[in-house]
Design a protein that fits this description.
The protein has 177 residues and is an alpha/beta fold. It has a single domain, classed as Rossmann fold (3-Layer(aba) Sandwich). Helices cover 27% and strands 33% of the residues. It has helices at 5-12, 36-50, 68-74, 130-141, 160-164, and strands at residues 14-17, 25-28, 56-60, 79-84, 92-98, 103-109, 118-126, 145-154, 171-176. α4 (130-141) links the parallel β7 and β8. The chain is globular. The two termini are 23 Å apart. The model has no long low-confidence stretch (mean pLDDT 97). It binds adenosine monophosphate. Adenosine monophosphate is lined by residues 24-27, 60, 63, 123-132, 160.
């Protein structure tokens, strides 16, 4: 029997215990990139869910860039990078958010997202949702509207979905753990 896309991803992604900190089960998605056919299937699945709904794709640094730009350009829409503070040249707009210890800040070019744009926010893993939530706030500060969130992997037990619902209830995750 042929495997579903979720099963193929599950069998390809590597679990690394206690990385980068004790107690974290790290999902290493880099083996997906060794397989062009599976990578195209992943992009096709994201396209199927997003087509006709988005004007811009925003990818979250750095693993959100990898399929994000291919997804955007195959949808024939612009791709915008959301990066950690200090990496993008001006003009930028910033959003801070809380981490387990301390704070982080992300930035985006303040001219790329236009008033009323329907934005897809894309990343590799949805964990607590703090990063994607900060991106959604950034998109709204620019005048955009979050049309969809998409992730390769969602860690259901961390309830990241709850943080994202106020921005959009259209959330795509190809594999759940
Ligand atoms: P969060 O803000 O908690 O949803 O974390 C999301 C960001 O952290 C994403 O950009 C992921 O790449 C990364 N991340 C969080 N948890 C994991 C994990 N268990 N394995 C791999 N990446 C993770």
């Amino acid at each position: 029997m042929s495997l579903t896309l979720s099963q193929k991803i599950d069998q390809t992604v590597t679990n690394v215990a206690d990385f980068p900190k004790p107690g974290i089960q790290y999902k290493d998605i880099t083996p997906l990139f060794l397989n062009p056919q599976l990578s195209q299937e992943i992009i096709d699945a994201f396209i199927e869910k997003a087509k006709g709904k988005v004007d811009i794709v925003c990818g979250i640094e750095s693993r959100g860039f990898l399929y994000g730009i291919q997804l955007a350009h195959q949808l024939n829409v612009p791709f915008v990078l959301i990066r950690k503070a200090g990496k993008l040249p001006p003009p930028t707009i910033a959003q801070s958010y809380d981490l387990e210890y301390g704070q982080a800040t992300i930035e985006v070019n303040s001219t790329y997202i236009k008033e009323g744009d329907r934005v897809l926010i894309h990343d590799d893993v949805l964990a607590t949702g703090g990063t994607a939530e900060a991106c959604a706030k950034l998109v709204e500060k620019c005048g955009g509207k979050v049309a969809q969130f998409s992730f390769i992997i969602e860690l259901d037990f961390l309830n990241g979905q709850e943080k994202l619902k106020p921005f959009s209830d259209d959330l795509v995750s190809l594999v759940h753990y």
